[in-house]
Amino acid sequence: MREIVILIPDLDKEQNVEIDVRINGRKRTMQYRVELLDWEGNDVPPKEKVQVLRHKINAYDKNWELVEIGPPTEKNISLMFRKRPDMGSQNSEVEET
Question: 92 in a domain, yes or no?
Answer without folding.
Answer: no
